[in-house]
Design a protein that fits this description.
Keywords: Membrane, Transmembrane, Transmembrane helix. The chain is an all-alpha fold. The protein is built from seven helices and two strands, in the order αββαααααα.
Length: 188
């Protein structure tokens, strides 16, 4: 379990962190590859969830779909709507597709916690799932309207949304780390 969830953790770090020096130094396709590799190993060892297959297949698809993100900085997203609408649309679409990917990953984590008979981990996963998705849906719904907010509110709302997203990403990393510590013998 430790090795599999270490791959997921590293893959998620590649997806989350964007360090650009002309190109993304931690490319998203490589992050999806780490998660694909983890799901492949997971399916070889334990076959109690069809969700692992879904996550694996989505990781393959997103490896391909996320290739342009190696060259398009998400940091520049603030200026993209007025300059390059197609690129902005692509990045927004990738954000939504990424939530679909996380939806299935969360469901896989639920199955693992249930199989391991880890009630506390299951409760934590469940709470984080709802908070994560409600917060990100609120951010994605409010974000297009932020362009028309003036008098300093834009900056305040942007900072609030960014801070909440940052905290949720850290909590998800901690959740994955908790799964790394599960004992392999619980799954047969």
């Amino acid at each position: 379990m430790k090795r599999i969830f270490t791959k997921i953790l590293v893959g998620y770090l590649f997806l989350w962190l964007d360090i650009y020096l002309f190109v993304d130094l931690l490319p998203d396709p490589l992050g999806f590859y780490f998660i694909y590799s983890a799901m492949k190993d997971f399916m070889k060892k334990w076959n109690f969830s069809s969700k692992a297959r879904i996550v694996k297949n989505l990781a393959i698809l997103f490896m391909i779909l996320s290739l342009p993100t190696m060259f398009v900085s998400k940091i520049m997203e603030v200026h993209l709507p007025e300059t390059i609408p197609l690129t902005y649309g692509y990045l927004k679409l990738m954000d939504i597709i990424y939530l679909v990917f996380l939806f299935y990953l969360f469901h896989l984590l639920w199955d693992i916690a249930k199989a391991a008979d880890e009630d506390e981990l299951l409760k934590y996963t469940n709470r984080l799932f709802y908070v994560y998705f409600i917060a990100f849906f609120a951010i994605y719904i409010a974000e297009p309207f932020l362009w028309n907010v003036h008098d300093g509110w834009f900056e305040k709302l942007f900072i609030a949304f960014s801070l909440s997203a940052f905290i949720l990403q850290i909590l998800f990393l901690l959740l994955i780390n908790n799964y790394r510590n599960l004992y392999d013998g619980r799954f047969g």
